[in-house]
Write a structure and sequence with these properties.
single chain, TIM Barrel, two-stranded parallel sheet, 12 strands
Length: about 290
Amino acid sequence: MDLSNKVVVTCAITGVLTNPERFNVPVTPEEMAEATRQAFDQGATIVHAHFRSQQPGMEMWPTWDVKDVGKILSAMRQRVPKMIINMSTGVMGANISGPMACLEKFKPEMAACNAGSLNYLKIRKDGQWAWPPILFDNPVEKIKQFTDTMAAHDIVPEFECFDTGIVRSVAMFQANGMFAGDPHLSFVMGVDSGMPARAELLPILKDELPANSHWQVIATGPGREKLWKLHRAAIELGGNVRTGLEDTFYLPTGEKADNNGQLVEALVRIIREVGKEPASPEETKAILGIKR
């Protein structure tokens, strides 16, 4: 199987805290399943899944309710059996019982593993905080709890890296025996207090990868043109890519996307312009070492 010309496409279909009354993000099991189908039909083979509260009036907020998460995952898997599930695990603080329970019960093929801490900040033009400063805390002890559970259930960790030092830390996790297999890293670029969404950083980040790594870009934040240029640069450098309504609402044309499928379609078009092809589900599993 020649995989040298293949690019893995992930779609992050909903994210957290985006108001579904203002933006067309999926919330219910049926909506999540349909968003997954739209993404798959356009060429995505991995769906990055956050789960939102199913309680009326609470749809902006995340949930780890096992019953609700189970209904969402069941709907997604029934609608698109070949789509690879990458489950979010991000939580603030030391209590990770919610995501751990979901990992153990549902055993997704992949799961995000936030690989370091970040002061999650945003400032307004007048110098005031857009929200109270937040520490997204991911100490090594917390990361190890996740990697141990993922290893026990053959779940491939996707190490999300918000800054250069976090990229470099993944090699230390590997040397310490915290995970086995080829590393899979995501460069999260565009968060205001993390790495900027600048294509010229990619060669530096690529040089800092552990040996035999697979990597992708998560391009987020304002500046529609630079986000899509960043995707193109990642593809040209041999990386994989992610889009979806968690990351951006805007197509390369500047038009607002109506759904996740439109964003994936635009990304696949760039992949083909570069002279490559989106990976199939079977190719994606081979590239990333997914055993199930």
